[in-house]
Amino acid sequence: MTTLTEQPLRAFGPRDFRAALGRYATGVTVITTRTPDGRLIGVTANSFTSVSLEPPLVSWCPAKRAPSLPDLQRATHFAVNVLAADQHHLSGQFATPAPDKFAGVPITDGLRGVPLLDGALARFECRTVRWVDAGDHLICLGEVERFDTADGEPLVFHAGAYHVAARHPEY
């Protein structure tokens, strides 16, 4: 049996809260867009989630301190690229500041020229619908205009480390 560590109401700091949130396993995505002047923008995000089937809506949550936030907020379209287990290097590449995060990354142009990462398990091409203020982050809501999928295993992030998902033995 797992021993729970209880935290008194509001007696925890951001580091403790982040560690607790890290117990929730997530997939890993790279959000991509293209600026009006043609620059490619990409950031790693594990805050991606589905919102609605009708209409098809998704969301993700960038930090307000993200250097690429102004470009992301001006974008009319973006893509969510769900990384495969063998793409863990891309997670690090797009999470680290660099002059050209797309160096050596095979891409395909999607709707409105938004870059799509080749080899991703799923790619959702979205129209930006709304930005919502949410503490030290923003919530970006997008309507999915097109998507594609591929077979493979997902890249999973849990407790500060990458993992590979395994099918539960009872299923």
Give an overview in words:
13% of the residues lie in helices and 40% in strands. The protein is mainly beta. It is globular and about 50 Å long. 25% of the residues are buried.
How is the topology of this model organized?
Blueprint: H1 14-21, E1 26-27, E2 29-34, E3 40-45, E4 49-52, E5 57-60, H2 69-74, E6 77-82, H3 88-95, E7 107-109, E8 115-117, E9 122-134, E10 137-149, E11 155-158, E12 161-164
Antiparallel strand pairs: 1-11, 2-3, 2-6, 4-5, 5-10, 6-9, 7-8, 9-10, 11-12
Q: Catalogue the unreliable spans.
A: none
CATH topology type = Pnp Oxidase, Chain A
Query: What is the CA–CA distance across the termini?
Result: 22 Å
**What overall form do the CA principal axes indicate?**
globular
The main sheet comes to: 7 strands, antiparallel
Helical content class? 10-25%
Order of helices and strands: HEEEEEHEHEEEEEE
CATH level-two architecture: Roll
Query: How many distinct helices?
Result: 3
Average pLDDT for all residues: 92
Supply the number of structural domains.
1
Query: How large is the share of residues in beta strands?
Result: 35-45%
The total of beta strands comes to 12
Oligomer state equals: single chain
| Rg, alpha carbons | 17 Å
- CATH class designation: Mainly Beta
| Spatial arrangement of strands, main beta sheet | 3-2-6-9-10-5-4
